[in-house]
Amino acid sequence: MPKRYRSEEHELTGEYEHSIEPRHGPHKAGSPGGTCSRFPSRHFMVEDASCGADNLEIDGFNTFTHARCPWASTAPCRCGRHSLHIDSLIVAVDGACPGNGTPHATKSAGGVFFARGSPENLAFRVADKPGYPHTSQRAELSAAIVAIKISEKYIYNGGQWDCEDCPTPCAVAHLVIKSDSAYLVNGMTAHVEKWRQNGWRTAKGTEVKNRDLWTKLDDRVRSLYANTGVAIDFWLVPRDQNREADNLANFGLEIPGK
């Protein structure tokens, strides 16, 4: 059983025959293994995983969002939360580019959303880069890179959860990048490894578009996995489920460019 954390003010009743998991039992889960997988993994979809794909992201107590435990009770605690993994983070990202794909696309921006009221939430303008026109795809990739960069301190040093019973800080072992961009999610979960092995060329032999950003994102993910074992997975959601990051990206468009 996972180690329990102090939460006397919450309901701790269980309802399973073979794996009693409390309705509100925040606990460590460790890395699910590997990296660059599509979230939610098969563990959320098996027959015994009561909640299935519902309520996958749970608000924590320290302005962060965490992954729900696959074995959480279907009924939440009185506080409204399901059992969650305290060593996980879910970070939403989005990009914005007015006039995308036209000569009028003269600026773009990214949004990174950790949780309501989080000091880590960020809106930023994508810097101009000679030879690289602004596009929504470049903005989305830039947002993912920034989100992982911000999350690095929690991957190495913890701090996303106040672990009263932990002798050392509870470091993030599972980071989920949430996005409504199929370009980003499919690229990182289905294509990036083949691109890298083929010298950053597609199956047709053409150079991968936005290679500079793909390599930067891929290098950061692989470096963190090699150094810490953290799994960085990617979650494709409908646009209406990513509004907070979208709002930040649009706000970023108003920031003066460099």
TrEMBL record:
GO terms for biological process: DNA replication, removal of RNA primer. Gene3D superfamilies: Ribonuclease H-like superfamily/Ribonuclease H. This is ribonuclease H. Keywords: Endonuclease, Hydrolase, Metal-binding, Nuclease. It is an enzyme of class 3 (hydrolase). Residues 1-36 are annotated as: Disordered. It comes from Xylaria grammica. Its EC number is 3.1.26.4. It catalyses: Endonucleolytic cleavage to 5'-phosphomonoester.
